[in-house]
Design a protein that fits this description.
The complex is a heterodimer of chains A (366) and B (542).
Chain A lengths: L3 E10 L2 H8 L10 E8 L10 E7 L1 H14 L2 E6 L16 E8 L9 H22 L2 E8 L1 E6 L3 H7 L11 E7 L16 E3 L2 E7 L4 H8 L14 H13 L5 H7 L4 H4 L5 H10 L9 E6 L5 E5 L8 E4 L3 E5 L2 H7 L13 E5 L5 E5 L1
Antiparallel strand pairs in A: 1-8, 1-14, 2-7, 2-8, 3-5, 3-6, 4-5, 9-10, 10-11, 11-12, 12-15, 13-14, 15-16
Chain B lengths: L15 E5 L9 H5 L5 E9 L10 E9 L12 H5 L5 E5 L5 H9 L4 E4 L13 E3 L21 E4 L10 E3 L2 E3 L7 E4 L2 E3 L9 H16 L6 E3 L7 H5 L6 E5 L6 H7 L9 E5 L11 E2 L6 H7 L6 E2 L10 H15 L6 E6 L4 H9 L9 E4 L5 E5 H6 L4 H14 L8 E4 L8 H10 L4 E4 L1 H7 L26 H4 L4 H23 L15 E3 L2 H7 L2 E2 L2
Parallel strand pairs in B: 11-12, 11-21, 12-13, 13-14, 14-17, 17-18, 18-20, 20-21, 22-23
Antiparallel strand pairs in B: 1-4, 2-3, 5-19, 6-22, 7-10, 8-9, 15-16
Classes of the chains: A alpha+beta (366), B alpha/beta (542).
Chain lengths: 366, 542
């Protein structure tokens, strides 16, 4: 079972907080990996929030292939950062040769482009790089978006932290939101792309779950949008559905819960909004999830979100103090890094928990 | 040497031979009274009563039961005689050297007709070679069929893609801006579609009663399709009409009355099915032989007592486009676009083309695709059609579902599959497997007949539905035979069967970790047959 966590704070945080949050939740860990996504970046990325940041891990050849694609499209490098590697003996990590975190300037022709045009360019470029790297078996692209940094690696979380020097705080690498997972979805192949959190166009998602409607979700999503690719994990489907509801359909966020865990027909027919909910239940039947799931997400509005399956079969707890909110699988992690806090929230199966940008917590009943 | 006319029909030509044990017979006459086919008669035999070596010629008369040797009155093996015999003195035994159908054709110069299902079974049953093999354990715990809640409802009606719903936002709330096609949420089993005439009024009424009871008392929203034979006006005008799917086929039987009753209807029907073809005899229209056109059948259908042959095609419809524009639109308009209009076709090599055409119809007015496989039953068919035409349901259903998946349009026109479900005893398992392969639901007629006491089999037993002489009163139109059927008991059996099926469907949903219908969840299925694995794209297991 995966353990997941999402931390949002008014203060910038170093990813060591994610390692510490996960440390006590690693019981029975299979060394399948550790991954995190940082958003609302501080430190050395603070001044580049409007420019796309490429996160990838590749071989020398893969790095060259990606650079060629970027150059050909017209992107130019503004700033590059590489983690300081501590390659001591005995570490359980399957490291890649290069880790690239690169801030790029848009092509000149995009000087007057709209936000939508720029976003379109980023997703098209990311897909192209991914395809090229896959064909050449030369690396992985995790995110290519402004103000987002992603790192994923296979191995022991503790050793991954040592390898990238992540255990010690560092003012250069900080963010207002960090999401992390300390174990891959080990039901399937252990590959970097299967490690949560997943990122797509401003939306980050991570799940502790088994989506028994994976085949239905995947079959439908493959035709819905060009960015719905990979499907190395059954949890990616949840992120894609969130993206579809918000970015493609532009529906209010509350309808995400109505899509993934629709109310029963009998419940819907007692409600005023029954016409809408029945239409959603029919039209998006292929995006329903089943099986045990807890899903955490970050939206482009810098809000955190938490929902569970309709039977609440997986754990999650939400803790808060005056400047930080943490959502995570087990309370043990919460106790480690936030011992002093307000009363915890244990969401029920029909709730959507939203943490606003100002850290106020809203609990919406489906 | 004794002379014999070898060109006449002989007892040894008949499909069933009556074995009669005179020593056990008490001459009560029940067997001859029970035989609806007049296949046996009491008669007197003269026998020499003294020793064969005695020079005296003394005779006695012995009353015995004899099998009639006739092309019209012959034993169908229904077993009613042995069922009623108090001493087990009589029974029908299958004749493996049966020549009856040869003799019938040779003497009548006519196509041989029968009811029931195909007796050849050359294709075997694909569904029996599929198991539910993906069992949730440990990582995704299986659900508890007894304690967890499950939802067994499926949409019936045209489902639009989310981006075609044209919802608008007002604050944080969505609202509809345009009228959308009607969609109802029904149980994934539809009772279908046997006409009044094909079955007796008692059988039809029992199904209607069971439908109403399941909906109103048990809360299980099954729907019943009328078949092409109309519907009693009183029922149509009642509140129970909302559970009935009205069928129109090429004969338009019963629609005069339906049209006249429409202004007085208090509820919209559950749907309309336009029948283009049926799985048991694709390419053939409905066939109700004159012997079954009873007085009340004439009244409901508005026809004289004659063979009622629905044409194989709808007259005046020469293309899919036209049928969409003309027939579907008319039917939608008839009920103010508030009732789903579906189509029923026989499974065929061409089914995918038809489904594609309907999926791509820009008017979005086809609300269901009923696909009927070759193992389906029928009230009457030419044997040649029944045994030699058709397409198995499983692969064609899968083809239709996958063609929709390929276009990202699965679920837009709900698929309902039928034809031979429950043939080997497990209706729920068959339904479940077809749902996993992409069906939104299933429809069944034969299963209902089984619960009503049908004595026929798929290996040539009885199969006399076409004659009006059904010994169980199910497909009979003879008053005395119809009275054998206890309406309330049949309705109760159907209700009980559906309750059992409901439990069994949950017993299959729970272990694969699904609390709602696993439509298209082929990952839950495995097969031990490599060809089936390849054809249906499900996992091979051995």
């Amino acid at each position: 079972m995966c353990r997941i966590g999402a931390v949002k704070s008014k203060k910038r945080m170093h990813p060591s907080i994610a390692l510490k949050l996960m440390q006590s939740q690693q019981e029975g860990h299979d060394d399948s990996g550790f991954a995190f996504v940082m958003q609302d970046l501080g430190g050395i990325f603070e001044n580049y929030k409007e420019l796309p940041l490429l996160s990838m891990a590749a071989t020398v050849e893969g790095t060259r292939l990606a650079e060629d694609i970027l150059r050909e499209i017209g992107f130019s490098r503004v700033m590059q950062w590489s983690p300081e590697i501590n390659n001591q003996k005995g570490l359980k990590i399957e490291a890649m040769p290069n880790y690239i975190f690169e801030v790029l300037q848009y092509p000149r022709s995009f000087k007057h482009a709209t936000k939508q045009e720029k976003e379109e360019l980023l997703i098209d470029t990311a897909i192209k790089i991914r395809k090229t790297l896959e064909e050449a078996k030369a690396g992985y692209i995790y995110s290519f978006w402004p103000d987002v940094l992603t790192l994923k690696e296979i191995g022991s979380p503790k050793d991954i932290g040592i390898y990238f020097n992540l255990w010690e705080g560092n003012a250069d690498l900080t963010a207002g939101i960090i999401t992390a997972q300390c174990r891959q979805n080990t039901n399937y192949d252990i590959v970097r792309y299967a490690a949560h959190p997943f990122f797509l166009e401003g939306y980050t998602g991570l799940a502790n779950g088994e989506n028994t409607f994976f085949e239905k979700n995947r079959d439908y999503q493959q035709k819905l949008y060009k960015g719905y690719i990979g499907f190395e994990s059954d949890s990616q489907c949840l992120l894609y559905t969130l993206h579809y509801i918000r970015k493609i359909l532009k529906w209010p966020l509350k309808y995400f819960k109505h899509t993934i865990t629709p109310l029963s027909y009998d419940e819907i027919t007692t409600r005023k909004d029954r016409e809408i909910l029945l239409r959603i239940k029919a039209s998006l039947a292929n995006l329903e999830i089943n099986g045990p799931n807890t899903f955490l997400a970050v939206t482009p509005e810098k809000e955190l979100l938490c929902v569970c399956d309709s039977k609440k079969l997986r754990p999650v707890v939400i803790g808060k103090n005056k400047d930080t909110v943490i959502m995570t699988s087990e309370v043990a992690g919460l106790n480690d890094i936030m011992p002093e806090r307000d009363a915890d929230i244990y969401p029920n199966e029909r709730e959507t928990i939203i943490v606003k940008d100002d850290l106020t917590i809203e609990r919406w009943l489906q | 040497m004794a002379s014999i006319n070898v060109n006449e029909l002989q007892k040894s030509d008949l499909p069933w031979i009556i074995e009669y044990d005179e020593s056990k017979c008490i001459q009560c006459g029940k067997c001859t009274a029970a035989c609806s086919f007049n296949a046996i008669s009491p008669c007197v035999e003269f026998r020499k009563s003294n020793s064969i070596n005695s020079p005296d010629r003394k005779f006695e008369k012995v009353l015995v039961i004899k099998q009639n040797i006739s092309l019209d009155n012959y034993c169908r093996g229904c077993g009613m005689c042995s069922n009623v015999c108090p001493n087990g003195a009589i029974k029908a035994v299958r004749n493996k050297d049966d020549k009856y159908s040869v003799a019938y054709r040779a003497q009548k110069a006519d196509s041989f007709k029968k009811g029931g299902r195909s007796n050849l079974n050359t294709e075997g049953r694909t569904l029996d070679k599929i198991k539910i093999g993906r069992i949730s354990q440990m990582t995704d715990p299986s659900l508890d069929a007894q304690r967890h809640t499950f939802e067994l409802r499926t949409p019936f009606g045209r489902v639009l893609k989310a981006d075609k719903l044209n919802f608008d936002t007002c604050g944080e709330v969505l609202y509809e801006t345009t009228s959308l096609p009607p969609v109802s949420w029904i149980y994934p089993i539809i009772f279908g579609d046997m006409s009044i005439g094909a079955v007796s009024w008692r059988m039809w009424e029992a199904v209607a009663i069971a439908t109403a009871y399941l909906n109103e008392v048990m809360g299980i929203p099954v729907r019943m399709c009328t078949g092409e034979g109309g519907i009693p006006t009183k029922l149509l005008k009642s509140r129970y009409a909302k559970y009935m799917i009205l069928q129109i086929a090429s004969g338009h039987f019963g629609w005069n009355r339906i049209l006249k009753a429409m202004p007085d209807m208090t509820e919209d029907p559950a749907g309309i099915i336009i029948k283009i073809g049926q799985g048991a005899k694709p390419g053939d229209g409905g066939l109700l032989q004159a012997s079954k056109v009873a007085r009340y059948v004439q009244e409901i259908r508005g026809v004289p007592k004659a063979d009622l042959l629905s044409p194989p095609t709808h007259q005046g419809l020469y293309s899919i486009e036209e049928s969409v524009q003309k027939m579907f639109l008319s039917m939608n308009a008839a009920f103010n676009f508030k009732v789903p209009v579906a189509v029923k076709v026989a499974a065929s090599v061409t089914s995918v083309s038809v489904y594609n055409n309907l999926l791509r119809d820009p008017y979005n007015i086809v609300g269901g695709f009923f696909l009927d496989g070759l193992a389906a039953g029928t009230g009457a068919a030419h044997e040649i059609s029944l045994n030699h035409t058709g397409h198995p349901i499983t692969s064609k259903l899968r083809d239709c579902y996958l063609t929709a998946v390929k276009q990202g349009r699965q679920g837009e026109i709900p698929l309902f599959a039928g034809g031979g479900l429950g043939q080997t005893g497990s209706f729920a398992a068959d339904a479940f497997k077809l749902i996993c392969l992409g069906a939104n639901g299933v429809f069944t007629g034969s299963m209902l007949l089984e619960t009503a006491g049908c004595v026929g089999s798929d290996t040539g037993k009885c199969n006399a539905c076409n004659t009006g002489l059904c010994p169980a009163g199910i497909a009979a139109q003879n008053d005395n035979l119809v009275k054998r059927l206890d309406v309330d008991k049949v309705a109760q059996n159907i209700v009980n069967y559906i309750l059992a099926t409901d439990i069994e469907l949950k017993k299959l949903m729970a272990p694969i970790g699904c609390s709602s219908l696993p439509i298209g969840r082929s990952d839950a299925l495995i097969t031990v047959d490599k060809h089936i694995s390849n054809r249906l794209d499900i996992q091979y297991a051995c």
